[in-house]
Structure formats: C-alpha cells, structure tokens
Q: What sequence folds into this?
C-alpha cells in the first residue's frame, strides 16, 4: 500500500511541474503521430505477402526480423514508416566511428560549429541510407509472389520516394523529441515499437495454452526467467566501477585552507549498451541475406549452418558480441580525453600521475570491467534460444528487446528525476533558507 501511494505521489509530481508536464505531453504526441504511420500502407504493395514471408523466417529471425523488431512490425506491414528510425541510427553510428578514426572529424566534434556541421552530415547520410534501403526493399518485395501488383522501375521509384520521405519525417520527429521532449527520441521510438508488441505476445501465449501447444508449467518457467533476466539487466545496467578522484580546490575557512571533498568517476560495466548484440546479429545474418538475394547454393549452406540453435551459431555469436563490446566501448569512451579534462581541472587519481599515466590507468580499468559486461550481453542474447529449446516453446522472448526496454526506461526516468531535482533547487533559491527550514523539502521524486 505504501509503495502504491509513493508511486501515485511520484506521478503527481511529474504533472505538477509545468515544464516537465509539457515535455511529457509533447513526447507522447510525437510518439502517437509515429504510431499512426503503422496504419498507412505504402501504395502498390500487398502487406499480407510480406507478413507471410516474415512468419516463415524462424519466428521473425534474420536481418529483416531484427529490422522489423526495431520498427514495431512496420516493415512487415510495408507502411510508409517501414524503415523507422534505423537509417538515422545507422548514420549516427557511422558518425561515431568517424570521430574515433578520423582526427579532423574528432576535432570538429569539440566545438559548437563543428558539431552542427557533423549533425548536418548525419542527416544527409540518413537520406542516402534510407534511399538505398528503400530501393532494396522494393526489389525484395518484387521477389515475393503476389506482393507487388505492377513490378518494375516505376514501382521501385515510388517505393523509394515514400519510404525515404517517411524515414526523413521519423528522423525529424526523433530530433524534436530530443530537443523539446523528454528522453532520447530515437531510443524512445524503438522502445515503444517493442513495447507495442507485448500485448499481442501475451494474447498469443494464452492461445498456445488453450490449444495445448505449451503447458502451463512451461509458461510459468518462461515468466520466471523473464523476471530474472529483467532484474539482472537492471542491476548490470546501473552497475559501475567508481574511480576515486580528488580535485585540490581549496577554500578559506576561518583563515585556514580546507581541502574539497573527494569525488568519483563512474565507469559503467555495460557502457556499449545493446549495440554489440545488434552488430553481432547483423553480421551473422549476412550469409542468409546474400543467399536470399543471390540464390547461391554455397551461401545457402552457410546460412543453414548459422540457424539459431546450432552450435556454430552459439560460438560465432559469443565471439562477435565479445569483439563488438570492446570495439564499440573503445569508440564511445576515450580515456585520453577524460584524463586531459581531469588534468585541466587540476584533478587527479590518488596514487596515479596526471596525464598519460591517468589515461593508461582508466583504460586498464575499462578493459577489465568490459569483460564481465560482454559476457553478460552474450548470455542475454543467447539465453532466449536456450530456454525455448529446453522447455519446448514455439516462440522466443527477446533478450535484446528486454535490454533495450530496460535501458531506455532507466535513462528516461533518470532525466525525469533530474528535472524534478532542478525544480526543487529552483524552489529553494526562490523561497530562501528561512522558509526551507520550516519544511524539509517536497515529496520524493519519480
């Protein structure tokens, strides 16, 4: 009862803050517009043929299945937003890689004008990627029986126009959410696309029980495992290695110099998030995608060897996730810049010399904590396949989906807490110290 009252008070706090309420309502409006696109089918295509193909691909596996997951089934329904936010995310990933590899781009990212120019390049890259993917989707649709009524250059051109325009509009919506709403726009779009599939999944589970496809005990085991996986994801996502730092900022206190309190640098165990799993799944389905479009028998043999559930699939997925975890962490985390910024502030790690030694120390710590994070990501990616085979259920619960949902939810809640904390701080500054003594702050945050 106390927890429910606390939750209700937290929700009330959100909507009692005018600025935060406006941000939440604006975000929900943009997401509602985005989900309207799920009901608008692109002209000249039969979505039933696309859906039948997706259903035949091992429960939506493969590259198209992964893409369909991030778009909330819009790819399978061939809507005008079929490409979703993925071209923009791909362009952003290329931007991050360019900053890590090209010194000129890295230098541009450190000033305001340079960042604006890089963001503009990302938008151009999004348009180019969307056009290429839309053209490829049109060719793929033409290869399916009954999917296209009038195949040819005209259909490909119109499909490319509609899907590219939809991707540009989705990119604009995501940027609007990031600038004027709450949370990261691209992440929230993927979040709601995944969450939207929960209710049909629950209905399908009850259908399987009523028809005797799976037993009640097997479903209970699956639910328990899902709860355990979610709890583990929350714990590991919030886990961080705190590196002690000390900034010799001194203030005068009764004529004496007083040393400032110590602080910490939180180094997250899973800094790369879900991206290593996405990269690994994208790479491992390449033979199957090439075999589908090229029709080569040798590629089909390779694709059959990499079917989820096989030994080679487990081994390659584990290796790829370990590799991409270190690779992506090295892209998004630069210990040299962190050490330089710390040195400029006059800070240091006790027992470690500032500068290059500090960068080496931080890099060593990150390398050590990345290994358990990579192992955890590997288990999250492979656990659904193991459980489905062990208890013989006809579907998988997505460890990748849970990782995305939990990560985005925690990040959004953290931003809401920051707004509430800032609101309380502003109230403290306006009310003054005497008024605050009579009342020990406002109710707890979200």
A:
């Amino acid at each position: 009862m106390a927890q429910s009252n606390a939750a209700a008070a937290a929700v009330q706090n959100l909507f009692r803050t005018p600025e935060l309420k406006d941000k939440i309502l604006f975000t929900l409006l943009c997401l509602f517009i985005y989900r309207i696109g799920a009901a608008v089918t692109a002209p000249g295509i039969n979505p039933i043929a696309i859906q039948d193909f997706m259903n035949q691909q091992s429960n939506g596996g493969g590259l198209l299945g992964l893409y369909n997951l991030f778009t909330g089934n819009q790819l399978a329904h061939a809507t005008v937003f079929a490409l979703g936010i993925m071209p923009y995310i791909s362009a952003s990933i290329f931007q991050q890689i360019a900053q890590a590899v090209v010194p000129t781009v890295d230098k541009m990212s450190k000033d305001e004008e340079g960042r604006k120019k890089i963001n503009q390049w990302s938008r151009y890259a999004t348009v180019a990627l969307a056009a290429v993917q839309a053209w490829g989707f049109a060719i793929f649709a033409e290869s399916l029986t009954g999917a296209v009524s009038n195949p040819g250059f005209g259909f490909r051109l119109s499909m490319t126009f509609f899907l590219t325009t939809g991707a540009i509009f989705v990119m604009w919506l995501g940027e609007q959410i990031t600038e004027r709403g709450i949370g990261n726009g691209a992440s929230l779009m993927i979040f709601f696309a995944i969450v939207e599939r929960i209710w049909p999944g629950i209905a399908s589970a009850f259908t399987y029980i009523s028809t005797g496809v799976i037993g009640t005990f097997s479903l209970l085991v699956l639910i328990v495992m899902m709860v355990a996986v979610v709890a583990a994801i929350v714990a590991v996502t919030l886990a961080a290695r705190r590196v002690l730092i000390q900034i010799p900022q001194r203030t005068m206190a009764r004529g004496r110099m007083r040393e400032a309190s110590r602080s910490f640098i939180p180094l997250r165990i899973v800094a790369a998030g879900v991206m290593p799993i996405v990269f690994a799944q994208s790479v491992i389905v390449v033979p199957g995608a090439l075999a589908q479009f090229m029709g080569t028998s040798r590629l089909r043999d390779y694709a059959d060897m990499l079917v989820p559930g096989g030994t080679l699939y487990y081994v390659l997925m584990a290796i790829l996730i370990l590799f991409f975890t270190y690779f992506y962490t090295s892209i998004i985390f630069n210990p040299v810049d962190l050490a330089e910024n710390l040195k400029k502030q006059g800070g240091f790690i006790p027992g470690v010399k500032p500068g290059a030694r500090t960068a080496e120390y931080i890099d060593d710590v990150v390398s050590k904590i990345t290994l358990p994070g990579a192992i955890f990501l590997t288990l999250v990616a492979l656990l659904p396949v193991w459980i489905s085979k062990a208890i013989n259920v006809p579907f998988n619960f997505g460890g990748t989906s849970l990782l995305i949902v939990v990560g985005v939810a925690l990040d959004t809640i953290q931003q809401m807490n920051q707004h509430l904390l800032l609101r309380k701080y502003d109230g403290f500054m306006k009310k003054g110290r005497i008024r605050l003594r009579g009342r020990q702050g406002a109710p707890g945050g979200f």
Summary: The chain has two domains: 19-199, 214-250+258-446. Strands lie at 240-245, 250-253, 256-259, 263-268. The domain at 19-199 is CATH 1.10.3370.10 (Preprotein translocase SecY subunit). Residues 399-437 form the longest helix (39 residues).
